[in-house]
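Exercise 7.
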Amino acid sequence: MLVVVPFLVAGIRLMEVLALLESDHRVAVMFTVAPAPNGAICHGAEEFVRAQGGFLLPWQQAVQCEFDLVLAASETAVEQLHGRVMLLPHGAGVMTSRLRARSAGPDAHPSHALDRGTLVHRGRLVPAALSLTHEHELAVLRNSCPEAVPVAVVAGDICFDRLVASVPLRERYRRALNVGADQRLVVVTSSWQPESALGSHPDLPERLLRELPSDGYRVAAIVHPNIWGVHGAWQVRAWLADSLHAGLLLMPPQEGWRAALVAADVIVGDYGSVTSYGAAIGVPVMLAPSRQDRFLRPASLAESVSREAVRLRLDNSLRGQLREAMDRHCRDRQAHIAGLITSRPGRAAGILRRTMYRLLDLSEPGRALTVRPVPLPTPVGARVDLLQRDEG
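Solution. The predicted structure, written as tokens, is:
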């Protein structure tokens, strides 16, 4: 089978799905990096594949081969490949929060990943299996691309299932991040558009660290993998150097972000998937000021999160606002957001594995699947004294 990695976010999600095929000697996996429509290769994608130890097949060779299964978490260039394509989302849900793609320009009509123009190429339906997270996406698909309904599979969200399985280990994650029992963990989440939390307010982590007393608060940051991929790890660390020196816990792009969400007392973020995942496990959310509001798709997951989130005001004391957000938060709201993320809670691994083996024309292994908690987090570039773990 071939795994298509056009950018880091897709690769990270696909590695989670690939774990469902472990220990099966009948399946051989290769990787390739798909080019963008303009032919460019996303910086960091090849490095990511090599870091996983995957066999990297050049794109020019991949398009000439036949595969039993092509696994993709983005529609980027998959119509050029030969084999049964299984298409998955790479974030929270298939429907993006934005009304239209930025690359399409301001005059473009609204679009989403379930449009016929996305799923059909020259009259041919590209995916042999289309993984959806929720029943409401299936309803959208019936209107936007009815010929794709027979290949649609409502599988749920494997990333969210692991996040939920990790919640009972909250205290272990907090100890791993050296968050004291009397401290509050503030997690800054940022997507990668110019209107994102850090795109609009690059000094936000530094200001939080300056205004919040260190004996009562810790601050962590989750930066979108595309920022790491496009600019490189050195540049991300350089931009945040002062904050890292002041004690910022910077999560690496591949893993650690879910552990930080579980450990968090409050999120300061934007309209990205990470913020929604945090809200869905009951973490209070504050939205940084942003111009993203005008790009939001009505009734999208991000729009639903924004309706219940507190708006952060940068002209007021941040400490007082954070305290107020935590005090007034009602954890009952998390059930509503979680219900928007998946309609198959806890079942994604089984459904996805069954679908892959069906496409491979192989019998599914009898090995039972368990939803594993995420590993302990290891922040990037943090001071050594901030990484001491309480082994008790």
